[in-house]
Write a structure and sequence with these properties.
One of its GO terms (molecular function) is CoA-ligase activity. Pfam families: AMP-binding, AMP-binding_C. It is built from 16 helices and 29 strands.
Amino acid sequence: MTEKMVAPELFRPPLDFPDVPYDHLVRIAAEHAPDRPAIIYHNLILTYREVVSMINCIANGLHELGIRKGECICLFTTNRPEYTLTFIAAGSIGAVVSPMNPAYKEREVTYQLENSEASTILIQRELVPILKLVLSQKSFPHLKHILVTGDHPPEGLPDAIPLATLIRRSSPKYQKHVEISGDDLLALPYSSGTTGLPKGTMLTHHNLTSNNLQFTTALRTDPNDVALLFLPFYHIYGVMLTGSFLACGGTQVLMERFDLLQSLELCEKHKVTYYFAVPPIILALANAPVDLGKLKSLKYIFSGAAPLPLDPARRLQEKTGIQVVQGYGMTEASPLTHSQPGDPSLVRLDSVGMPTHNTEQKVMDIETGERELPLGEDGEIIIRGPQIMAGYWKAPEETARTLRDGWLYTGDIGHIDADGYTYIVDRKKEMIKYKGFGVAPAEIESLLMEHPAVLDSAVIGVPDDEAGELIKGFVVLRKGQNATPNEIITFANGKLAGYKRVHIIEFIDAIPKTASGKILRRDLKEREKARTAQQK
């Protein structure tokens, strides 16, 4: 008989999450403290009163443009107030928001605009040249509106509407344009999968509202907390952070991109209490030859998006005296599913913690996914809770494989100890994790195959202390072709976002495959391990 896990219930009792639209949480926070700083961006400070007024202006303006419930709005910006305000405003009129990576090239922008059937895009002014190139190469029947940051139309896009103009001409008063239920779609972030191109992940109002409350409750955040947010808002981790700190009534300090020294300065200047990072940043902090005394206001340094190595976490904690914790989640779970106990004495650095409130987990056998395993035994982690996605956009078969009877099959391998702590030990999925970002090998392989000299290819992640994994491609050249590794790397990387770029190319005679044609990546990884061992 399978031994049942009961310990998490001692730490995470069930909570009653309200079935309300996503914008409801920030409106409640604004009622409690309208003059409290909500968002700090460079020298701009927006209070909760101002945030809600601007959300109302954008919502009313979008509605006046004819944008209706169920239409998709892509957000193509860095971490800026306009992103967060438009995300919430769009949701308040029933639109679906699809965050877009600002590092995307034409190929990736084209795919997401087309696949999401976006009717509107909000684009940062600096990214306009990419959109102009995309629009010059392809037409998008669904795309009706282009909004741009700033206060004047960009050159070459005369019909684009400056967001500042939309705000100025719209009413700051709340108007209820449509009925919204918890089951209505709110967000469509694109999650890289093992089968190739990214998939839209359908997240509802109830998913994200519940996860914001799960996050703020588990981390014990309150209106006096200040979060430094440099993790990208197009990533589900960033979506959760910006929404959660508005939900709890706290203050968020925005950075458009990470810079270690600037992050330390901002922590000191704004008395930051929560510092959210990914493992490469934890490593950078642990190894930084600088005084980390500027972090003294911090309560926690939180790591997510990829497994956190124990050594740098321990060194950083010893160096600063600040509690380092890691959590666990994924796009399909809005994202948070696990976090550490609130009591620092109960934190275990090598664990991702316990399921958050209203979240259940099991460990199933890897072969069938149908047999629950006992405590301590490694298997596939499956999760059920209010934060679990509705499914994948336009991908019913993939949805059926991943969601079974309400349980999300994560593809991650791990176990639960007798105290209820969860440990992630490996990935069943073939995803490569580069600096916390997921990269699908199949997408890179498809691109490599476009090179005229390439006959076949396979891509794996190879271990790297700073990045987590580097992207390595094994390539079989066509007969008579003499391309060099650098030529192929240059070809591929010119069409990929920075985090997807290929770092190493090795030529081989044949790609190992099963009889059915599936790439035997484990063989390539063993080959890589053997090579590394020989070099030591």
